[in-house]
Amino acid sequence: MPARKSNSKVSRRRFLKRGALAGGTAAAAVAFPQVSRAETTTLKMQTSWGPEDIFQDFARQYVERIEKMAGGRLKIDLLSVNAVVNYDQVQDACHKGALDGAHTVTAYWYGKNRAASLFGTGPVFGANAAQILAWIHFGGGKELYRELVQDILKLNLVGFFAMPMPTQPLGWFNKEITSIDDLKGLKYRTVGLATNIMQGIGMKVVAKGGSEIFEAMETGVIDAFEYNNPTADRQFNAHDLAKNYMLGSYHQAAEFVEIIFNKDRFSSLPDEHQAILEYSAEAASTANYGMAMDRYSSDLQGLIKDHDVKVSRTPPEIMQAQLASWDKVLKKFEKDPFFKKVVESQRAWSQRVAFYDITNSADYKLAYQHHFPGTIGF
User: Strand 244-247 vs strand 310-313: parallel, antiparallel, or unpaired?
Assistant: First the structure.
């Protein structure tokens, strides 16, 4: 009997010791969480933007989120336009492996397939940019984009979208535009499907990259132009070229940033790094949009107060003409089965989603005028 008692004490001591060790191990597991064992990788990415362009800042926000989420084990060597190739050559460079990735827009490769423009400068059925970005994520858009890039164009690429851009202004003119007749015959810079839309309302369209606008305007190659937003326009001194800034248009009312990677390079990365590259685009959307609201609004006031720019709302007559032009362009291009498939998908999505939004949204203009009477002149 005593021997059994002694053994019982020893067993209890052993049990407590083992328990303490197990508890210490568990505590260590909590105190020192598992860290990714993926090797550090650096990807070379070029943008289509100049080093001071706000779109380069958008790209930096994307890169910051990648590197923080990856704990320093995935780094991006971010280059600005022309570091390796021109603004409209980044897709080819990624396809061939000269670049690992690029930060650009689909309108810049519109010449390869008109459907490219549907993923950034497409028709307006009533849905805004945030709602069409939602179509990409939840309405079949990402699958259609993959089909276009990989199956139809046979490009060795994967891509993601970020930053639902606010409506792009009609642009800069030497005189205030009050009617559709004021646009007839003007040589006007734009890109993507917008070239067809603006031709349809009587303008002579010249496709130019953003970095080419200033020289083209100074030398008379163009009479008027649009780029993207008050910040980017102010940065390249658009106000030195013209003083009438027309806001509101249907030519590019739902564009996004396109982020692409060489497919082989992307597939070679650990799953966690692939996920970080994809979902950082979603995180960057929020950061990009927040920065845009701050800086676009501030720079619009700067254009008015510091540079004597006259800001006007594009007349409804012109917007109606743009919609009619869209109808004709879609009828023509929907002869292409894939183009038609994408448009029909967007149309169905917009009919449902825009109905909800328009029916439900508060009248923000009414609220603004209530609190800031006399500020808006239309």
Answer: parallel
> In whole angstroms, what is the distance from residue 352 CA to residue 335 CA?
25
| Angle at which helices 337-360 and 129-138 cross, to 10° | 120
45-82 pLDDT per residue, tens: 999 999 999 999 999 999 999 999 999 999 999 999 99
The CA-to-CA distance between both ends of the chain, in Å, stands at 101
CB under 8 Å to 182, separation ≥6 — which residues?
A: 173, 175
Look up tokens 């015959």; give the residue.
185
Beta bridge partners of 102: 46, 260
| Gap between the Cα atoms of 79 and 51, Å rounded | 8
Q: Is residue 181 part of a domain?
A: no
Compute the distance between CA of residue 279 and CA of residue 358 in angstroms, rounded to an integer. 29
Burial (CB count <10 Å: 0-12, 13-18, 19+), residue 257? buried
Question: Are 211 and 80 spatial neighbours (Cβ–Cβ below 8 Å)?
Answer: no
Tell me, yes or no, whether 260 lies in a domain: yes
Question: Is 259 within 8 Å of 157 (Cβ atoms)?
Answer: no
Count how many domains the chain has: 1
Q: Domain containing 65 — which CATH number?
A: 3.40.190.170
Triad 293, 378, 231: Cα angle to 5°: 25
- Neighbouring CB atoms inside 10 A of 304's CB total 15
Which pLDDT band, with edges at 50, 70 and 90, does 20 fall under? very low
Copy the structure tokens of residue 92: 């080819």
* Domain annotation covers residue 153: yes
38 contacts 272 by C-beta, under 8 angstroms: yes
State the pairing for strand pair 171-173/244-247. Answer: antiparallel
Q: What does the angle CA 210 – CA 55 – CA 92 come to, to the nearest 5 degrees?
A: 65
Q: pTM of the full predicted structure?
A: 0.87
Domain around 158: 41-164+255-293
What is the distance between the alpha carbons of residues 45 and 55, in angstroms, rounded to a whole number?
14
Per the CB < 8 A criterion, the answer to whether 45 and 99 are in contact is yes
Q: Is 24 a domain residue?
A: no
